[in-house]
Amino acid sequence: MTTYYTKDHEWIRVDGDTGTVGITSYAAGQLGDVVYVELPETGAKFARGDDFAVVESVKAASDVYAPVSGSVMEVNSALSDAPEKVNDAAEGDAWFVRVKLADAGELSSLMDEAAYAAFCEGL
Hints:
Layout lengths: L1 E4 L4 E6 L2 E6 L1 H7 L2 E5 L6 E2 L4 E7 L3 E5 L4 E6 L2 H4 L3 H5 L7 E5 L11 H9 L2
Antiparallel strand pairs: 1-2, 2-3, 3-9, 4-6, 5-8, 6-7, 8-9
């Protein structure tokens, strides 16, 4: 599996034509204590750059943007009962959705891990 990152601090881990999407550890750290996560419905479709989820913390509410176009195959319903998992495992068990990619070519516009790390250092 290959992981890609956006400038808005989302990640997508790709396996074939399926992507698992969440927010990065950097984003979770900037948000502070996450208290609520609003996820889309299974079957929802979105285009790259569309907001598809909302994360609320004690500091603020933030939209989460789709790194690629696709349709939601699965949502991480565990986050409804334990949104704080985002702070502990943002790039692991606290994934948001699994999507079927509409256009794998969109991945070429995203950053790899080294490029994302360099991007974050510049912030």
